[in-house]
Specification:
There is one protein chain. The protein has 262 residues and is mainly α. It contains 11 helices and 3 strands; from the N terminus they run αααααβββαααααα. It has helices spanning 9-29, 35-44, 47-61, 65-78, 80-88, 125-141, 146-159, 168-178, 183-197, 218-226, 236-260; strands at 93-97, 106-110, 115-119. A hairpin with a 4-residue loop joins strand 2 and strand 3 (115-119). Helix 1 runs parallel beside helix 11. It is globular, with a radius of gyration of 19 Å. 34% of the residues are buried. The mean pLDDT is 91.
């Protein structure tokens, strides 16, 4: 990183938090097919990969990986209810009488009781970032053969299908850490993963409905030309703001989406 770049880590995080808010507002209220919807989602593609970048940086700089992982894990769990409510307008676990048709929940039938339990095992991006941190930790400190580490990372990617930015944020975290000191290799690996992420564009007609995905390619430019490599203020407010803001804004948008405007 060069010192001529203008933004520190805290400032960059606030920018991607704004991008995330724009993206989630679009998911809740703006039609995907509209120009405004495409633009808002394009901007929102900055958030997941940039947060993966900061997880890789956080692992490198933290003095206690266990505390870092515990913090991510706890807030991933806290975010479960707000995320499910934002996405589906329901709590993660529902008990209902009679059969319910649902394509996203897992339905458990209680024999001879006429009662069904609907379980929504979907989590937000903090869950995926937690798995990304686990992938870095395994690769860097795991005391097992490399083939065993690869299998472990595949398992973590499989578990991430229950989270936002599934698979890709796990790989972003890992590659951004592994190639941290090599700018060319780091962003080449990032762009290869992104290209796979954007392959939907080839199969969706009309293709422009998925053009927003290309916003991910803005991340290397965003970080490389804005981030100065400095952390900014050490005030604990900056550390905790995202963890609190993430579930809080999902809950507020969920209430607006399902109780006010539906």
């Amino acid at each position: 990183m060069t010192k001529k770049n203008s933004l520190n880590r805290n400032q960059l995080k606030y920018l991607v938090i704004i991008a995330m808010l724009i993206d989630h507002i679009a998911w809740a209220f703006v039609p995907m097919e509209s120009v405004l919807g495409q633009l808002m989602h394009f901007i929102g593609r900055l958030t997941g990969p940039t947060m993966a970048y900061f997880v890789a940086e956080g692992y490198y700089y933290t003095r206690d990986v266990k505390k870092y992982a515990l913090r991510l894990g706890i807030f991933a769990l806290i975010s479960w209810i707000p995320f499910v409510y934002f996405e589906f307008g329901t709590l993660p676990i529902r008990i209902v009488n009679g059969d319910v048709v649902t394509s996203r929940g897992i339905q458990l039938n209680m024999a001879n009781e006429g009662i069904n339990i609907i379980f929504y095992p979907w989590f937000g991006v903090l869950y995926t970032l937690f798995l990304g941190l686990m992938a870095i930790w395994l690769w860097d400190k795991g005391k097992c053969p490399k083939w065993c580490k690869v299998i472990g990372i595949i398992v973590l990617c499989a578990l991430s299908i229950f989270g936002d930015w599934a698979v890709f944020d796990v790989l972003f975290c890992l590659f951004l850490f592994c190639y941290r000191d090599n700018v060319k290799d780091k962003w080449t690996a990032f762009c290869i993963v992104t290209a796979v992420c954007c392959m939907d564009i080839l199969f969706v007609k009309p293709f422009w409905k998925e053009i927003w995905m290309l916003g991910i390619f803005m991340v290397p430019i965003f970080i490389q030309f804005l981030y100065n490599g400095e952390s900014g203020s050490k005030n604990s407010f900056h550390k905790w703001f995202f963890y609190i803001f993430y579930p809080a804004h999902l809950l507020i948008l969920g209430i607006l989406k399902w109780m006010v405007f539906k």
